[in-house]
Amino acid sequence: MITVIGTGTGAPLAPDAREALAGAALVVGARRHLEAAGLPDTVQRIVLGPPAPALDAVEEHLAKQHADGREAPVVVLASGDPGFFGIVRALAERFGPRRLDVRPGVSSVATAFARLGLTWDDAVVVSAHGRDPRTALNVCRARPKVAVLTGPGAGPAELGAGLRASRRVLVVASALGDPVRERLERVTPAEAAARDWGDAVNVVLCLDEERTSVSAPARTVAGAPPGPAGWALAEDAFAHRDSMITKFEVRALALARLGPRPGELVWDVGAGSGSVAVECARFGAAVVAVEKTRDGVERVRANAAAHGVDVHVVHGAAPTVLSDLDDPDAVFVGGGGRELPAIVTACARRARRTVVVAVAALDRVPAVRDALVAAGFGCDGVLLQSSRLAPLPGDVTRLAAANPVFLLWGVRPPARMTHTEVTEVEGVAQ
After folding, report:
1. What angle do CA 331, 336, 342 make, to 5 degrees?
2. Is the pLDDT of residue 327 over 70?
3. Residue pair 81/105 in contact by the 8 Å Cβ criterion
4. Is the pLDDT reported for residue 429 higher than 80?
5. Residue 35 has what pLDDT?
6. Predicted local distance difference test score (pLDDT) of residue 223
7. pLDDT tens sequence across 79-96
């Protein structure tokens, strides 16, 4: 049996945990945990660094003791709740969950929110420890209450640098549980980016205080809110000018091809009313809307606010303004005029996964397709023609034809797809 004990956020070890330590033949843990445990000199210790060597040593120890016919109690010390983005996953994969006796402590996430007096059943938790921080950044851009488990190269400074354009507040929690060194510091993204935070950071809370209300109704399901109950919303769900909006039939297929999801970044280029941007944000993606008209910029912002989502709006003309943006996972291009081929080319060079383009004019289709293919994408498309039911006087209904639209999409082949670190994003129901 391997006993896994959660520790490290200030609470003393329970008597049963101390009893397990007293009977252990081998104890595995970080150096600080081993030093704090007060182990006798006779106990074998393994300092936990990269998991694989430690797991190999545990397996060798168990096998040797089993061959000698002796009981070989092993204790693994871990921070907080070891089943929450912790070592329980690796131990269960190697030895099986039935060989584990897990005794969790309080997680750093729970501790940090408790110190602020905030509930966290509506928070999203994302790990950037040993992972590409872009997923954590995109979750922070999209969600109003996020906890980020940090690591080297993915700490408060990196998060702050990526969130400079946002209205977020970062709460950096360091040395949680240490009566002398514990700190919780509330900083702006710019302040976080300018500092060296050392190696004591446990977790960073990213808060949009305008959208995080202490008087929010009680939750039934923990974590991020569920995805939208409906999409491809009717045009009258958005403010728009002279019907200059991506029609819901086109939007439905565009969303299917874009596949917006939490942890990803989507561009809506030539956003107009921002209907595509808003719908992508409702699916949990981080979204940047690019719009060249000032009244369009305000319209996108108003539509995002009306639907309770966060869309970062960039005022300027594509492709020029695109160079200042982070690389997207998916791009929707809904405008462009004569610059359309250049815009699609610029987007395709940067997109990690897919580019979707809506085109009303037949003569622009070949140029768009050529731009996608030249960038290495597999290209496909359809001509969408729809007719809606329209009432006439006398309780009569006719079909009213909408203007046809070409929808083309390019998908980066898997063999050439930009590698994305697999980052686990969890709600907080654990």
Report:
1. 75
2. yes
3. yes
4. no
5. 85
6. 84
7. 889 999 999 999 999 999
pTM value is: 0.88
- Domains annotated on the chain, with CATH: 2-106 (3.40.1010.10), 109-222 (3.30.950.10), 235-416 (3.40.50.150)
SS (H, E, C) the chain: CEEEEEECCCCCCCHHHHHHHHCCCEEEECHHHHHHCCCCCCCEEEECCCHHHHHHHHHHHHHHHHHCCCCCCEEEEEECCCCCCCCHHHHHHHHCHHHEEEECCCCHHHHHHHHHCCCCCCCEEEECCCCCCHHHHHHHHHCCEEEEECECCECHHHHHHHCCCCCCEEEEEECCCCCCCCEEEEECHHHHHCCCCCCCEEEEEEECCCCCCCCCCCCCCCCCCCCCCCCCCCHHHCCCCCCCCCCHHHHHHHHHHHCCCCCCEEEEECCCCCHHHHHHHHCCCEEEEEECCHHHHHHHHHHHHHCCCCEEEEECCCCHHHHHCCCCCEEEECCCHHHHHHHHHHHHHHCCCEEEEEECCHHHHHHHHHHHHHCCCEEEEEEECCEEEEEECCCEEEEEECCCEEEEEEECCHHHCCCCCCCCEECCCC
pLDDT of residue 415: 62
